[in-house]
Write a structure and sequence with these properties.
It catalyses: 4-hydroxy-4-methyl-2-oxoglutarate = 2 pyruvate; oxaloacetate + H(+) = pyruvate + CO2. It is an enzyme of class 4 (lyase). 37% of the residues lie in helices and 24% in strands. The protein is of the alpha/beta class and 218 residues long. It has one domain: Ribonuclease E inhibitor RraA/RraA-like (Glucose Oxidase, domain 1), CATH 3.50.30. The strands form 2 sheets. Strands 1, 2, 3, 4, 5, 6, 9 and 10 form an 8-stranded mixed β-sheet that branches. A two-stranded antiparallel ribbon has the order 7-8. The model has no long low-confidence stretch (mean pLDDT 96).
Length: 218
Amino acid sequence: MDSEADALRRLKELGAATVYEALGRVGAMDHAIKPLDPGFSVVGRAFTVDSAPGDNLAVHYGAHLAGEGDVLVVDAKEFTAAGPWGDVLSEYAQKKGIAGLVIDGAVRDSRAIVGLGFPVFCRDVCIKGTDKVNLGRVGEPIVCGGVTVRPGDVIVGDADGVTVVPQELVDEACAAGARREQAEAGYRTAIAGGASLIDLIKVRDTLDAALAARKPGS
C-alpha cells in the first residue's frame, strides 16, 4: 500500500466480514458487539482502554488521550447493567477527530449518538449511570469481544460486526481481501451465466458423499 491512509481506506471498503475471511477467519469480535445504527462503519488504529465494570473514569481518560483517527476500544468486562458512554462523550470524541468507539459493554443516549453520526459499536444499551473512581489502564493490550487488541491494531467495523487486524498484517489483509473480492466477483459473473454455486465453491463431491451416507428416513 502507498500509505497508511490508503490501507485503512481499502480495509473499510472491503468490510469487516471480508477482512475476517481473508485473515483466515480470525479477528472477529463476539457477534453481540454491534453498531448502534446499521449504517455505522469505522476503521482506524486502536486506542485501548481497560475499564472497571460500572465505572467510566478510564473511559474519560482514554477519550482525553486518544488522537485523531483513533478508534477507542474499551474492555468493559461485558458489563451491561450501566452505560459508561453517552452523547456528551460522543460529542467530545467527535470534536477531537476520534474515529469511533468499540466497547465490550453498554452505552446510553443511543438516539442522540445516532443523530450525531458518531460510530459506536457496543454489546447493549443501558440507561443507568456509572461511577468515576477506577482509573483502569490505557494504551495496553486488552481483550474486547473475545479478541486480543493491542494499541495500534486496526479496527474494521460495519453492519456485520467488528474485526481486529493485527498491525503487522494490515498489508496482508488488504491483499488477501482483494483476492477474495476478485474471486467473489467471478462467482457472481458465473452465477449470472447459470453456473451452480455448489460447483463454483467445489463442494459437490462433499455434498454427494454426505447424501450417500445419509440413512434412509434420516
